Amino acid sequence: MGRLSKVKKFIQENYYDGDVIQLFDSRNLVGDYMETVYEEDGITIDYCPGYHYLEVFGLTNEEYLELIDSNKLHSKVKVFEEGIDY
Question: Hey, which end of the chain has fewer CB within 10 Å, N or C?
């Protein structure tokens, strides 16, 4: 399984509950409390439990664009209803 597939699987299994979760590739500027929830293959994901969003670091621009739903106003994780290729 490739590193992007691992990230998609992790998000789907741990943070996607049928609702939308926002995803950012930069640090928040307001100092929201963050917890590091994933560190693998050079990728780090931090979670903000207070506002239910993720920050992801270590992806290429192409990988990040593949992860988000670019049709939305804000960067939101794509819904993986079809499942993930393993």
Answer: C
Greatest alpha-carbon pair distance for the chain in Å reads 37
Strand partners, 69: 76
Q: One-letter amino acid identity for 39?
A: E
Per-residue pLDDT of the chain (86 residues; tens, 9 = 90+): 789 889 988 988 888 776 667 888 888 889 999 999 999 999 999 999 998 889 999 999 888 888 876 554 445 555 444 444 43
User: What DSSP letter does each residue of 9-68 carry, written as one string?
Assistant: HHHHHHT-SSS--EEESS--SS----EEEEEETTEEEEEETTTTEEEEES--HHHHHHHE
Question: What ranges do the domains of the chain cover?
Answer: 3-77
- Whether the model clears a pTM of 0.90, i.e. scores above it, the answer is no
